[in-house]
Design goal:
Length: 238
């Protein structure tokens, strides 16, 4: 299930295609997109398209993550699914009150419309999130990633933050930098992108003086906070 970055770089070189490295929140936010104001439901359609483009017999993208992301997803998926379920219940209650209010004031039985909870949306989106994770090549935890993460924490380099346990975030980013460097050293010329919605720790993409700029530029990689932007770069739209 887990693979070393060295072995993965050789596999990617053998079948070159753009590389998208996905953080935990990016994969989980598919489930949050129906109720989080800052997450577009375009992430759902982008996920479906990326899964299709990563199929072995017609691959046009490599989806990559690491062992920590896999573990964090398993630890958090139930909570995120419950969160959506509760938001749907609240939304249904509000809509019921709105329709009932209209029926009283207009003395008319208005159609209530589709009852969202009957669509089992939390389960379907959880399955989509899992499918995206399953399509990812997962880099194994490596001692070198741990060492690089500790260096970031000591220097408080993004995504490390003072007063916050940033070890896992830093190990994830170290894994991304490792695979990026290995691919560039093998003369890989396709796009390599890191995608996380956690801009609070990583900084906003394309922001002036982004804390990640120097490292990303040094290995010719990019950082986005939306799956749809990663899809756009694969399709040559950005």
């Amino acid at each position: 299930m887990f693979i070393s970055s060295t072995e993965l770089s050789e596999i990617i070189i053998s079948a070159p295609a753009p590389v998208l490295f996905l953080d935990t929140c990016t994969i989980l936010d598919i489930i949050r997109s129906p109720f989080r104001d800052n997450i577009s439901t375009n992430e759902i359609s982008a996920s479906l398209e990326l899964i299709n483009k990563s199929k072995l017999n017609n691959r046009s993208v490599w989806l990559v993550t690491n062992e920590i992301v896999y573990t964090e997803w398993k630890e958090n998926i139930a909570t995120v699914k419950i969160e959506l379920t509760e938001e749907i219940k609240k939304a249904e209650l509000k809509r019921e009150k709105m329709v009932n209010s209209a029926n009283i004031i207009f003395d008319f039985n208005h159609d209530f419309g589709q009852v969202i909870k009957t669509l089992n949306l939390p389960e379907h989106l959880k399955n989509l999130s899992k499918s995206l994770l399953d399509k990812c090549e997962k880099i194994a935890i490596d001692d070198s990633h741990y060492v690089e993460a500790m260096k970031r924490i000591n220097k408080c380099d993004a995504p490390a933050q003072r007063g916050k346990d940033s070890a896992k975030d830093c190990q994830i980013f170290a894994a991304f930098l490792d695979i990026g460097k290995q691919l560039r050293n093998k003369n890989f010329h396709q796009n390599i992108c890191f995608i996380t919605t956690n801009y609070q720790d990583y900084g906003k993409p394309n922001a002036p003086k982004s804390p990640l700029d120097q490292e990303l530029i040094s290995i010719n990689t990019k950082y986005f906070n939306k799956l749809e932007w990663g899809l756009a770069i694969i399709e040559g739209r950005v």
